[in-house]
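Table S2 (continued). Query chain:
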Amino acid sequence: MKSINCNGKLIDLSSPKVMGILNITPDSFFDGGKFNNASSIISQVEKMLSEGATFIDIGAYSSRPGAKHISEEEELNRIIPIVELLMSEFPNILISIDTFRSSVAEQCVQKGACIINDISAGSMDNHMFSTIAKLQVPYIIMHMQGTPQTMQENPTYDDITKDVLFYFSKKIKELRSLGVNDIIADVGFGFGKTLDHNYQLLAHLELFNNLNIPTLVGLSRKSMLFKPLSISAKEALNATTSANTIALTKGTNILRVHDVKEAVEAVKITELLKNN
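Corresponding output:
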């Protein structure tokens, strides 16, 4: 059984779960600047939880291609009050923190967050792995080539699926040696990948089950979905559901999404296939 321990609560991932995205950045690619006060944040989180989100993922550092770099201090000033707000409003909430900085991870966990979602899998902060080992929280490792500022300049691979699998196997070995129990892999759609790279990964996503850890996908409203259709991110909900459904049939355990209701429906429909 694939499960993770969040604040002492065992979450069974053999039935896929949905992670709702809460961007509190002014410049995120889809909903930047939309949730910038307490009432709009509470209302959005309440909506996502009522629609069936198991986790809420909070990001205060925009990682879209070419995003502006912000200081650690600014990231903390943005995110800590939101964690405190949500923990007081929703005491049983399971908060994931989207950060590559160990000090942000540690301070947010001290305030009640229970998952760390690191786009760099420890490569942008060499204290992250030891911090996760100390905190003993589930840790999402994502594959990214380069940094958010450089990742789309010229992404190249020998064989993207093999390269990403090898990357994860090294990271998992290192984390296990430090005593980290709950590791989740995210192939990082759109992070240092061309359109072809993204679809090669989606086509072979089931191979990542061989890592024997839960997998997460973040396909929601990404350019790999809307650009081929000549539409915008705002028009990409149907494409997102299509891609999420493909990911679910290949064994994905967590969908990270902007639109919780539709993702939960995709999970329910694909779950009906399991016993037939």
